[in-house]
Sequence to fold (1016 residues):
Amino acid sequence: MAKHFSTPLPGPCVGRLKMAQVLVFLVGAWAAQALAQSPALTQNPPVWIGFDDAYGVKTNTSAIVSEWGIKAAMEEINNNGGVLNGRPLKLMTTDNKGVSARGKDNFVQLAGTKDLVAVLSGKYSPISVEMLPEAHRLNVPLISVWGSADPITDHDQKPSYSFRVSLKDDWGVEAMMKRLSSKYMVRQACAILPNTAWGRSAEKVIQEKSAQNTTKFSVVRWYNWGDASLKEHYKACLDSRTQGLLFVGNEKEGAILVKEIATQTPPMRLPVVAHWGAVGGTLHELVKEELSMVRIDFIQTFTFINNKRPRAVFLAEWILKNNGLKSTLEIPSPVGAAHAYDTVHLLAKAIEIAQSTSPQKVRDALEKLPAFNGAVRHYAKPFTSQRHDALDKSQVLFVKLTPSGQLIPQD
Amino acid sequence: MVRLKTLKAQISHDVFRLFGTYIFGVTSISMLLAVYGIFFYQQEEFKHYKALVSTRLDSEISASFRQANDLAHSPEVWTGLTDSSGRGSYLLPLLEKANQHKNYKFDLLDYLGRFFIQSDNTAGLLLDTPANIQKTIEDSQTHLELVTIDQSDYLTVSVPVTANFTDSTIGMVLLQLDLDRIMATLNFPDDLEVNYSLIPFVQDASALSKHSEAFKFKWTDAGHDYAIHIQLQQSYLSAFLFVMTGLAVSLAFGGLLFIRLRRWTRQFSERTTQRLDDLVQLASDTVQGRSNESLMDNSGDEISKVSTALQSMLQKQRIATQKQAVFSRVFETAAEAILITNKQGLVMDVNAALTDMTGYTKEELVNQPAGRLYIKDEIGIDLPTIAESVRRHGAWRGETYFLSKQKTQLPVLLSVSTLLDADGMSQGHVSVFSDIRAIRDAEKRLKDLLNEDQLTGLPNYRGFLEYIQSKGAGANFAILFIDLDNFKNINDTFGHDQGDEVIRQIAQHLKTELPAGNFLCRRSGDEFIAVLDVHQPITAFQEKLKQVFKSAVFTVNHMGTVHITATFSAGAALFPDHSQSIHELLIYADTALLSAKESGRNQIK
Fold:
């Protein structure tokens, strides 16, 4: 089982970054931490935060980018004296390779680590859902920094050990529906969903919210990971004379869809509002040519572009500094970095409130956090006992993907 | 080998030896044929079994592997392995559809080989993480393992699930082929064991009681070669029981036959023994002259024929024996000596008369040449002569001499005849001897009486004539006629009895006085004739005679003893000087006597 420690950083997590960038990043990260942390801090026992994501999925960028956000926050906190009177925060990562069982095992492994206060889960919603029973069995907080499926926080476990600093389909998918309606004037829409907990979560929202919206989803199609083509589904959408497409999926399926739409004649190219999974990876590299031929918007909760929020600026600078990037436009999967960054800060505060590394106490403290001005938003009250989602629909924005991988906010 | 004494024992011995040999032979051949047949049958059966197993497994494995690969490459499965709650809605129908086949089942395992979703395939839950799953975890390749669950053999196949969105194994499809169930469809015999192994089977000692054949079953899937070793074993027990049952039945029948045969043997031998006893008794009675009709065997079989033939033979024998006894008694008691010789001339038998006659014992004669009894000189008849006669005429009869043990000549009357057998061939000879010594003695005595003077015991004139004729022509002798002078006076004086006495004394006197070698006979009355060999000149001879014929004194008893002096007158004639004719010589001598008488007596002329 893969087990990654923040110092030094693991090799397999680099995704599709160029090797040169990785080397710069590695050296930079080590140097920054080594210089920043005081000798006294390094002698105190660390307080661990776990992070599990699909490092092993080649096209996934969410894992490494989320890790940047975590590390940026940790560095910031540790430079300010750490937590619990000088104990440094440290990151322990695991690779679920996109497989539910691995994620679950990783959670169990991380939760068993001494002085680990919480586990952050990454891109794949089903894996977060799979971790839920273990989080509640082991009483270790699970905080999703990317997953959007409603069941991650909407479940019957009391007290709930799952939190989310991310998009929630409940309002995210609704926003996508509205985007189809408002931007593309779609009345009859089609949904192509993955046959997973994520897709089912989205479908549930579609079904629930259709009545309230002008856009009607007459066609809902399901696909499986690894399907070589979505043609049939797209054809079904066209056959039903739908005008727009709501797509839930990741970069691989997104690439297939974009390519297949691009093969259609322009009138047959339906506008697509896509979930952000597709831009959690290297979609732009998979569909360089076709991208411009398809009208496709991606939902986001954060962008570095024109973002003046101090922590967002700090985070962008940290990432650029530590990863050899020149522009915030080059930062892939920005939501992962921002969510993770804010989450670590929220956790640090919870640790301070709990004055303990006890996961239960940290969980309790999370519900009692004071306001925090994060990179994504100002959290007036990040979590409550009734609400474990730190974001809401006010964070929703839609972006376009450029062939170079930049996510440009759209009206 | 110990000779069995009783007929029953002999029959039993022979019958049971034959019977035993037969049973042993038949049983051995039957056993060999049965064993070979079973071995051959099992070999053929096993070929058939192997073909069936291979065909069936090939079909099942191909189908199940194809389906396992379909599952492993199914996006639904891929999705399921990345999915969470709710995945059962599509995975369970998928597995349920895949698990329609009763001979093999599929399970979906996670990347560490744990059951990812609980299907209705409960058998899989009993698996204790087969080694192949671990291997698949390690190298992401398909691996096989043979496991036993509740005494059922399963081939478990772990097929890695590798999705196109990741390099690593995200899970695996576990295929469980229920080998026993597959084999059950082949309707093999209950005692046929089918064993499976991933490594070649090693023949162990326990397999000796079983017919065992192993083979490697290979197949290819997705460019990889796979194989399992299959061993078919069938206990020899059923075949052994079959053979033993056959043997037992055979032995039971053999035993029954044995009992029947023993009873028959006993009865047959007792019956036969009784019949033979009767036959012996009958023979004994017949020999002894008793007749016992109750012992007659009239059954008509071989023993009956033997009985009849034996009885007839014994009756003839009895008659012959009686005759022989008579003949033997005749032979033994005959007064005549009987000698039986064989063709070689050796003595076969002699009777008591012969031994008495010859002084030999029977033992000294038997097997000895008969010729020793015959005298081979001029007295007896020449033996070859007799033999020649017998050869020519079959018999010879005549007088001859035998030689007793004491070398005494025995005059016998011999009758030789050839002893012929039933075919007329000579078996030897029978010689009958009659002792004729008494006859010869009587003849001699009679002859003596004819030539002897009864008063003096001297030869008489007949004796003189026989004697003188026996003299050869070359002899030189003298005949003397002697006469007592005046003998008539003596008779007249003292009577004839005293005269005879005087004559006896004179005869004695002359016999004594005459030269040795003389022949003296009484002619008649007081006349004597003497024959004297002359070996000296006539004068000396005459002188000598003068000394002989001196006067002599004789005594007579006549009223006391009376001495009488007497003188002799003699006339002599010389042969051949006086005549060569006896008759003339007698006349000459008689003349000379008369001359002497006339010359005054007491002189020789």
User: Anything to note?
Assistant: Confidence is low (pLDDT under 50) at residues 1-36 of chain A. Chain A has two domains: 4-167+305-393, 170-300. Chain A touches chain B through 31 residues (CB under 8 Å). The radius of gyration of chain A is 20 Å.
